[in-house]
Design goal:
With 205 residues, the chain is an alpha/beta fold. The chain has 7 helices and 7 strands; from the N terminus they run H-E-E-E-H-E-H-E-E-E-H-H-H-H. 24% of the residues are buried.
Length: 205
């Protein structure tokens, strides 16, 4: 299985705006350079629906979403969506008694179909603070490897930060750390071999 596709190596950000789409559809998605912008009509859709549909549409086209940023929304809600998106989580503000505290729900063990469920009227800043432990409860293997990668970033003084960020995102997407490590090591070995060959002096014939 090839994990390191071009699309996965360059995760993109999604910026979500509230406004009038001016179209029949409740939300409009467009590309803006190296990012995507979604505008949704609040009379026909909410921010959660816009975020879920945007991520699903881009995923179906092979685009890896690295972060979701809300524009012009409540700061606490913006922080919640951004923190959740870094873990590839959708956000759902739940109503009723089914969810009594913030919790991560994974559908059919598919890492791309996980949602951070937060009860209505729950303090959103508190929900952001609870996110790491809720994620670890739902996906302990991924959380353990993300912690190791975060420590590796600190130990490397940022020298290979980008590569480690890509590795973390791939583990979140695939839930297969061993395959991700194997492919990354193969890529590094290939680059080192090509670099050594390029630096070698030419032999006269």
């Amino acid at each position: 299985m090839t994990i390191l596709t071009r699309e996965r190596l360059s995760g993109t950000s999604v910026h979500i705006h509230r406004g009038d789409t001016g179209h029949a559809k409740p939300f409009l998605l467009r590309r803006d350079g190296d990012r995507f912008i979604t505008t949704y009509d609040p009379k026909r859709a909410d921010v959660g629906t816009a975020a879920v549909l945007t991520r699903a549409l881009l995923s179906s086209e092979g685009v890896s979403v690295s972060e979701v940023i809300l524009e012009g929304h409540d700061p606490a809600l913006t922080d919640l969506y951004h923190a959740a998106s870094k873990l590839l989580l959708n956000v759902e503000i739940t109503r009723g008694k089914r969810i009594t505290k913030p919790v991560v729900k994974v559908v059919s063990q598919d890492p791309m179909q996980a949602t951070y469920c937060v009860p209505e009227k729950w303090d959103l800043l508190d929900a952001v603070g609870r996110l790491p432990s809720a994620f670890a409860d739902a996906r302990p293997k991924a959380a353990r490897h993300l912690k190791l990668i975060e420590q590796a970033k600190k130990d490397s003084d940022g020298k290979i930060g980008y590569a480690l960020d890509v590795m973390a995102r791939l583990i979140l997407e695939t839930d297969d750390p061993d395959s991700v490590y194997d492919e990354m090591l193969h890529l590094f070995d290939q680059d080192r071999t090509e670099g050594t060959s390029a630096d070698a002096p030419a032999t006269a014939v």
